[in-house]
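Sample pair:
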Amino acid sequence: MGSRFIMKRWFFLSFVCLIACIGCQWQLRPNGDAEEDETIVIERFDQVEMLYLTTGDFAALQQMKTGYPSETRALIEDVLRLGRVDEPDINTRFLLFFQDSTLQVLMGDVEKQYHEVDDLSEQLTKAFFRLQRLLPSVEIPRVYTQIGSLDQSIVVGDGMLGISLDKYLGEDYPAYLKYGYTDEQRMMMTRQYIVPDCLGFYLLSRYPMSEEQSETTDSLALHNARRNYMGRIQWVVNQVTETPVFQREEVQLVEDYMKSHRDTNIEELLALPVFADYHAER
C-alpha cells in the first residue's frame, strides 16, 4: 500500500515522465472556447464511484461505465493500474482495492469536505477565461472529480481534466502524515491548490518541454533545465490566477526576465530555449 502513497505533484515530477504519461493523451474538444456567460460545470464522477465502492451496488457500477466510460477507464487503468477495464474480474478487483481501511476513511472525508464544489467551478471558469485571453488557442476541457489512492493529483487526457479529491484534504490530514509527505508537499494538498494544479497540468500538456529545450547529456544541466521550464509554467499560473501561488526561485527569475522583456508574450516565453543566463540578467 505504501508505494501508492508517493507524492506526485507536478512540479516535483520528472518532466519527461510526466509528459510520457499525459502529453500523448491530450486531445482538446473542437469548438471548445467558452462564452463569457458559461460556467465550467464540474462533473461529480467521484459520487458515483463512491456509491459503488461503499455499497457494491451494480446499478452504480453501470452508471460509472455508461455515464463516465472514459473517466472509469482512466481511473482503473491509468491511476489505480488495476488492469484493463474489460477484464472479467476487474470490477471485483476495483471493489476489493477500496476495502482498505485508509481508503474507506478517505472516501468519507472527501464526501464531507467536497459535498459542494461551486466555489471551485467559479474559480476554474474565471481562470480559464483569463487563460484564453492570454493564450487564445486554449480550449476548455471537461472537468470531473474522482477518488484515487493518494496517487495522481490531476489527470489530463482525451479533452478531460480529472481532479483527485483525495489529494486535497488539508495539510494536517492524518493519512498524509502517516505516509510521510513532507511539510512542503502537505502545504499544497489543500483546496486552494486545486485550481493552480489544474492550470499547471493543463499547460504542461499543451506546452511540453521541447527536445531543443531539454537536449543535453549533462544530467545536472537537464535537471536545472526542467526546473527552469517548470518555473515558467508556474509563473503563467500566477498570472492567470492573479495570485502569487508559486514563489520558488525559478518563478522569480521568470518574473525578472519578463519585466525586462516586456515585448515577450506568454506563447513566446514557453517556446524560448532554456534560460541559461537567468542569473546573469538579474
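The beta strands are 42-43, 142-146, 154-157, 160-164.
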